Amino acid sequence: MFRSRTCGELTIKNVGEIVTLAGWVQTIRKFGAITFIDLRDRYGITQILFGENLNNQLEENSLGREFVLQVNGTVTERSNKNKNIATGEIEVTVNNFTILNKSETPPFTIQDETDGGDDLRMKYRYLDLRRNAVKKNIELRYAVNRSARNYLHENGFIDIETPFLIKSTPEGARDFVVPSRMNVGQFYALPQSPQTFKQLLMVSGYDKYYQIVKCFRDEDLRADRQPEFTQIDCEMSFVEQEDILNMFEGLIKSIFKEVKNIDYTSVVERMTWQEAMWQYGNDKPDIRFGMQLCNLKFPAHSFPEKNNISDLIAADLAVFNDAETVVAIAVPDCSEFTRKQTDELTEWVKRPQIGMKGLVFIKCNTDGTFKSSVDKFYSEEKLKAIAQAANAKAGDLILILAGQEERTRKAISELRLEMGKRLGYRKEDEFKLLWVVDFPLFEYAEEENRWVARHHPFTSPKPSDIETMIHNNPAIENAADYLKHPYANIKANAYDMVLNGNEIGGGSIRIYQKELQQKMFAALGMNEEEQQHKFGFLLGAFEFGAPPHGGIAFGFDRLCSILGGSESIRDFIAFPKNNSGRDVMLDAPSSIDTKQLNELQIKLTPKEIN
Amino acid sequence: MFRSRTCGELTIKNVGEIVTLAGWVQTIRKFGAITFIDLRDRYGITQILFGENLNNQLEENSLGREFVLQVNGTVTERSNKNKNIATGEIEVTVNNFTILNKSETPPFTIQDETDGGDDLRMKYRYLDLRRNAVKKNIELRYAVNRSARNYLHENGFIDIETPFLIKSTPEGARDFVVPSRMNVGQFYALPQSPQTFKQLLMVSGYDKYYQIVKCFRDEDLRADRQPEFTQIDCEMSFVEQEDILNMFEGLIKSIFKEVKNIDYTSVVERMTWQEAMWQYGNDKPDIRFGMQLCNLKFPAHSFPEKNNISDLIAADLAVFNDAETVVAIAVPDCSEFTRKQTDELTEWVKRPQIGMKGLVFIKCNTDGTFKSSVDKFYSEEKLKAIAQAANAKAGDLILILAGQEERTRKAISELRLEMGKRLGYRKEDEFKLLWVVDFPLFEYAEEENRWVARHHPFTSPKPSDIETMIHNNPAIENAADYLKHPYANIKANAYDMVLNGNEIGGGSIRIYQKELQQKMFAALGMNEEEQQHKFGFLLGAFEFGAPPHGGIAFGFDRLCSILGGSESIRDFIAFPKNNSGRDVMLDAPSSIDTKQLNELQIKLTPKEIN
Q: A22 — contact with chain B (CB < 8 Å)?
């Protein structure tokens, strides 16, 4: 051992002890012939005092930032105490020291607030990882990992490793593939998730499975997506949806307690997908604050019976009349926004990311009067009625968007989140869990005029919808009327867990009957041959006594980032990739030897760059 | 929940309770109008009694093996108790039941001793996994996993995930590569181990790292190798070899205790690589038994001073005189082997796997006389002297092999293990750990007439050998004399942990100085450009204060198989691949769509099959 103690543990109680420490030089301060050094290791920082007697030796072996240093010395009480750190009452007076390794001047400072830009820090990730701000994240990640494993272990789950070199069955996202040298011309795929394997384990009788496991998706990377990511992947047999929800809100509550020391004792709310969409414009609402949507005009295809509310906004106002949807939020205590502020909000919704043509507002003045951007079209009485419908109180600012249903709903949801953020309703240290349930089983894929699985092809319909699914032809005769197809209304036995407006986990009760699974594959446009080629093993397994089962997978990177109060999952991954899927530290991916290509019997055929 | 209790927990104490169980039908026994079923789940088997009243219903819904069944009924005391199982004193008398899923007749019986051959069981692995014999292995694997994590956690280690999509730096084994779609013409590699990443984490100051992690090697599969396998991967900073040995024999002892309830209190033996090779012919000796080698004639290139012992065997005997090596073992209590038995042994060593030309034996009769297959050449006196040298006692059978050094040493080692096995010295329930230390740093690669790293290029030489390494040119001028090159004698700071003759782990103290690392790369024939291309990130990291560090990796699959008393790691992997690297259940690898190939801009160029 190069040390007898760490840099984080010595206190006033150790005064007089002879110790050996090893670590990195954080700072050097010279006062005449004596020198102070802050020595840093994983556990903390200890002040080291080099007395006059060592001055010559120090000059011959001059130290610099990030040098690796071993010191042997005596723990002494400091005259000038630092109450901010655990070791702040002592220092170590050096008897002798060894420079274990030198360091070039780092390209950025190893401090919480560093001067290094993102690219530089990624290139020198091994130095970035030294910073306390990053170390805290990596340690939090481990704490979440440990806590999840403990909870699952105590609840009878067993960690079973599933393979990484599997079969390519692209459904949704693209697979990363791995050419096989021993089976020339054939490829493995890296798993997008262990989905089918965990289901097979249920067929095998392992009844409670978990794994904290890497998954891979070859997608065009949006901000904060990684080609490889980690899931807490779980599956249970002989359960219904209710059992899963209880078990896994327990998991998250247990992580809150162990990692954040938060007693999450309140009931986890539940909301149907429809409620979420109508009330928040979003299937992963942030329910730390209210400001629910008021649907002033529903799209014609849905809830025609509810559309009487649209009488409220009946006027000679093209922006509302021509819109498929008109939807409002009442922003508390903002009725006194200036023209500049409302203009800024209008610009905000007109940005390409939001894509609206404009913003209508109604100020509900504290004196009971109203002032709106559409005063020309509405009487005070009408404005008051709209305000009532929107649940606005005196002092609120009503913001109204109008336009095509999907875009408008997305925009009002973004606007709600933005206003919530500006008003300080989205507190980093407040955590609100939510289950969103009863998702649609299918989504309509316009390009191919067919159904795709909203979750995945293994998700079960609600028991009450099984008949509808079996007895109807999935083919969509009239693309324009796809919403009238019986499949459009089939609900899935699926659920998402939402934390502060982020989907942290999702799962479903699975299909376990061979015929229903075949019907599902067929509904997704897979003929029997394709079903056999891709999923023959699963259909086979369902012939030999598959139990009812279901499960969930949590996005581990995302969960950690939210618990750590960060927006970026990259901060919680030791060696992340950038938005082009590159590891800039390794400089990977990279070209490989012709010898390797020849062994794999593949050839590059790069297209001309246009 | 489809059940209120499991099939493994009901005892006489539960008599009278109404319970719901769910599981698989193991057996069906009809006695007139009543039917007994053994219902199986993960936790055990419970006997279920269907009374006369259910006879009609059972006939309408006939049950079969492996049907998934839910029963509701009353726990009752059995008249005919079964002491062999936990639930053997009770049965559940059915009130009502539901068939949750049917099953075809399984292709093999779901029993400890199954009638299914290997191929069939692999194809239907999800059924094979139902067998208790396999389930026990999977559960043992989890127990080892859990125990390792607990020990490492308690000792301050932190689990940090390293990336799977990395850079191809083939050194030794072949990489699996992954074509990148977003970086056309470039490839990721799957890690053969997280070696460089864990070293970077040490540079980052994380001082005690571990991971239980999948690794990948594209090798021609020998029996019992898998293209993907799991390591317990660990690294520590500020340590010397002694610290690592202590920490990790602690890990294995802790696993013994928790998983096998074995108190491994004895000191773990240590042996240099040289001792292992001379005394056991093998760098992973099984020390559960003695029978060490007696080197009757050393190869000329080594220990010339010791060769006086070869006077013992001096005779007009070409098989000895022409041999580079003559080596013997004394097999206890086998002097009365018949001609048939010694002939059989002779055939055994002549098999191509062993490859010897013959076997010489000396029987040390219990009456003090000797009888050998070379009586023509040696007097009784001489035989006695040889027996003395071989540490043989009266009643022993001395077996002698002669020939080319490497082959002969390997053969005598195999023969020793075979005799140990036949004589019952290799007990499945006896565990003997051993550290083999002081490996050579380099191996000579004949084809390329250069040095290769015996462990890997990051292993440090012994401190006393660093000067030799730095001040000598690695080039080998005279291939025939490579053993005289100073590099041939450089010892590595490397160690293997051996359990019952299997290498279960290996590691080293690493190089942490940039210059020494460069010298190492150069010694392996890598020029500066190649060093930068492949390992620039590591050399870079060594510029910024790399601490002294070292680590170890355990072969998790192998460790589990030894603890489980099996020769095959496949039995301890939920979904293993066969010897051609195929998953026969999935039928993977497989061909992929042209669309996928086009997106990756690669083309298959299969060679003509010869």
A: yes
